Amino acid sequence: MFSIIFIASLILLITTIVMMLASILSKKALIDREKSSPFECGFDPKSSSRLPFSLRFFLITIIFLIFDVEIALILPMIIIMKYSNIMTWTITSIIFILILLIGLYHEWNQGMLNWSN
């Protein structure tokens, strides 16, 4: 019992010493003003935070996320095809792909995919 407490205390002491040494050794002597300032995606952090931002970038991000999630959901469907009922799998796959195609048609119809404007 005493040896377990001694070993645990020794491990705690060694861990504390290593963490303190890492903290001391990782300190930088020079503090650079540019590196200390927040980086705001290319915008000047000292100016107004209410700058106009193009909505097109937001829409493209949303479209990317939708189709990225689509790939993450379609890949497992291929793997489970041999373990599932083929009729249920086919109906589920067709419904899923139809929903995505309807969404793509809606985005195209609304002009979200047009960058010429």
UniProtKB/TrEMBL annotation:
Catalytic reactions on record: a ubiquinone + NADH + 5 H(+)(in) = a ubiquinol + NAD(+) + 4 H(+)(out)
Enzyme superclass (EC): translocase
Compartments where located: Membrane; Mitochondrion membrane
Keyword annotations of the record: Electron transport, Membrane, Mitochondrion, NAD, Respiratory chain, Translocase, Transmembrane, Transmembrane helix, Transport, Ubiquinone
GO molecular function, one term: NADH dehydrogenase (ubiquinone) activity
Gene3D superfamilies linked: NADH:ubiquinone/plastoquinone oxidoreductase, chain 3
Entry's EC annotation: 7.1.1.2
Record's bilayer topology term: Multi-pass membrane protein
Functional description taken from the UniProt entry: Core subunit of the mitochondrial membrane respiratory chain NADH dehydrogenase (Complex I) which catalyzes electron transfer from NADH through the respiratory chain, using ubiquinone as an electron acceptor. Essential for the catalytic activity of complex I.
Family per similarity comment: Belongs to the complex I subunit 3 family.
Protein name according to UniProt: NADH-ubiquinone oxidoreductase chain 3
